[in-house]
Amino acid sequence: MNFHREPITFVGQVNLKIQNLERSIAFYKEVIGFKVLEQTSRSAKFSADGKIALLSVEQPEHVVPKQGRTTGLYHFALLLPKRTDLANIVQHFAKIGLQFGSSDHLVSEALYLSDPDGNGIEIYVDRDPSEWNWKNKVVEMTVEPLNFPDLLSIGNEQSWKGLPIETTMGHIHLHVSELSKTEEFYIKGLGFEVVNQFGSQALFISDGKYHHHIGLNTWNGVGASAPPPNSVGLESFILMLSSEEKKNKIIAQLKGIGASVTEKSGSIITTDPSGNRIHLIAKE
């Protein structure tokens, strides 16, 4: 099953603020393997297939470095189509001497790194959904060491030519200030379901029984404040909705819980209780 197309609600694009546009373009092209889809003097959009933007970066006026202990981006996560693609990018990272983290989450195998501004990135591949273990509507996830010998046994260093064209924005993981109102916003407002919870500090939510489209945590501290508007970090992200009908239903749900909903240039924008901005886009 494809968890990143209609009728499922999923993250389509992540928009970041960065300090140096040329540095970011070089990183996302040469290290991550994106194609530049559009570029202006202060911004750029990146794509895997040369058609659909998955990531945008913008250098704000008077930009300041990423602020610690604030809400916003923990990481955005690029989903690769095949396990061999993950093996190939591991070999690419090793070849260029890039340091990165890794984990086996049972549902997926993942690499972790940051861009030059400290924006977190996950690159991962899913295990087949038939291998995911569900119990009482909760999917089992954990943090185990990645089996690199097994992974690299299927890789081909010469075959890395950037991100595969089928790469999608798999999920986004956010720092939030608390979980109670946050859960209400994402569940009652946006219509997601909780599929996993790590104690009192993290929630994982999804649509259509994916392991998670959005992660939410208070690891930067309960009560963490939003960063300044001109700070490096998350500007916003886009949620893709299957229809205008679904969008209108979600707007009504958001207004019903008192969430902010505004329209700007034809786009519906809402903000979660921690200040994370979300654009709601319906399929035409």
UniProtKB/TrEMBL annotation:
Keyword Nucleotide-binding applies: no
Organism ancestry: Bacteria, Bacillati, Bacillota, Bacilli, Bacillales
Gene3D superfamilies, per the entry: 2,3-Dihydroxybiphenyl 1,2-Dioxygenase, domain 1
Protein name: Glyoxalase
PROSITE patterns with a match to the protein in the record: GLYOXALASE_I_1, VOC
Pfam families from the UniProt entry: Glyoxalase
Organism: Alkalihalobacillus alcalophilus ATCC 27647 = CGMCC 1.3604
Presence of the UniProt keyword Metal-binding in the record: yes
Xref: CDD domains: VOC_BsCatE_like_N
InterPro entries in the cross-refs: Glyas_Bleomycin-R_OHBP_Dase, Glyas_Fos-R_dOase_dom, Glyoxalase_1_CS, VOC_core
Record keywords: Metal-binding
SUPFAM superfamilies with a match to the protein in the record: Glyoxalase/Bleomycin resistance protein/Dihydroxybiphenyl dioxygenase (SSF54593)
Domain of life (superkingdom): Bacteria
GO molecular function, one term: lactoylglutathione lyase activity
Annotated VOC domain residues: 10-126, 168-283
